[in-house]
Amino acid sequence: MPRNKESTGFVVTVAIVLSLVCATLVSVAAIGLKPIQEVNAAKEKKKNILMAAGIYQDGGDIEALFKDNIEVAAIAIPSGQPANDIDVNTFDAVKAAKDASTGQSLDDDPAKIGYIANHALVYQLKGEAGIEKVILPIRGYGLWGTMYGFLAMNKDGQTIEGLTFYEHKETPGLGAEIANPSWQATWVGKQPYDENNIPQMRLVKAISPNPDVAEHQVDTLAGATLTSRGVEATINFWLGERGYGPYLSQLASQE
Ligand SMILES: Cc1cc2nc3c(=O)[nH]c(=O)nc-3n(C[C@H](O)[C@H](O)[C@H](O)COP(=O)(O)O)c2cc1C
């Protein structure tokens, strides 16, 4: 019997079959592409570590540069002591933060991250005389979501050597300017700590003409005061007593 292609049953059947085929194709593509996405995400992180360290070369071999210059170490947070029982190849600080056995929730939470892990990975840039810089993973809430980045500090534990953000949800042209290398470059050389060793970085509309004040200041992002406040809170939190402060003090004392 010839099929009535205009009947409701036929149209509904075709629609269902088509939806199932499309859904299957999308799922297969998503699952199939996941490993590639993970590889690319890991590469982007390494690129940002190299950028923060100041040794990234455009078009260079990221894996080779990373392998030749960076040593990954695990430390306890906040003591800063080496944590040799942590596997640096598999440790995930964001995952560990949310597990009560490997992290803790934060009541006083200026960077608005909710939880912090009991350990962290630190990336050490090695020169002939040992550690030259350390590149520290940081994260904090902007206006629309969590911003993930790396802050490079000199082995003196006091001087900022670089800042990058590799993942965020801020608006292009506004808050997303946190990823602009020109703005990131203005952080280099800043001295975040005051005389009591409290991190005091400020994002301001006009940098002070007084160098003693200006060394704690960076330009706020135009039209993105809320993102800028998030960055300020993020930097000061991670450099503080509950973040990398003790680790950086120990590093400086080894000089
Ligand atoms: C569509 C839209 C997107 C925005 N995105 C951001 C953003 O990513 N970061 C931010 O701080 N402010 C953003 N803002 C602006 C904030 O709402 C707020 O006005 C701004 O942070 C104030 O900064 P200003 O004092 O420098 O003008 C956005 C506003 C709109 C309408």
Residue-averaged pLDDT: 95
Count of domains: 1
How many beta strands in the DSSP annotation? 9
- End-to-end distance: 90 Å
- Choose one word for the global shape: elongated
Order of adjacent strands in the largest pleated sheet: 1-4-5-6-7
Q: Please summarize the sheet with the most strands.
A: 5 strands, antiparallel
Strand content: 15-25%
Q: Which H/E pattern describes the elements? A: HHEHEEEEEEHEHEHH
Provide the helix percentage: 25-40%
Low-confidence stretches: none
Structural class call reads alpha+beta
Question: In a few lines, what is going on in this structure?
Answer:
By secondary structure, this protein is α+β, with helices and mostly antiparallel strands. It is 36% helix and 22% strand. The protein has one domain.
Describe the structure.
The chain is α+β, with helices and mostly antiparallel strands. It is built from seven helices and nine strands; from the N terminus they run ααβαββββββαβαβαα. The strands form three sheets. The chain has a five-stranded antiparallel sheet. A two-stranded antiparallel sheet has the order 2-3. The protein has a two-stranded parallel sheet with strand order 8-9. The chain is elongated and about 90 Å long. The chain is 36% helix and 22% strand. It has one domain (69-253). Flavin mononucleotide is lined by residues 143, 170-171, 174-175, 223-227.
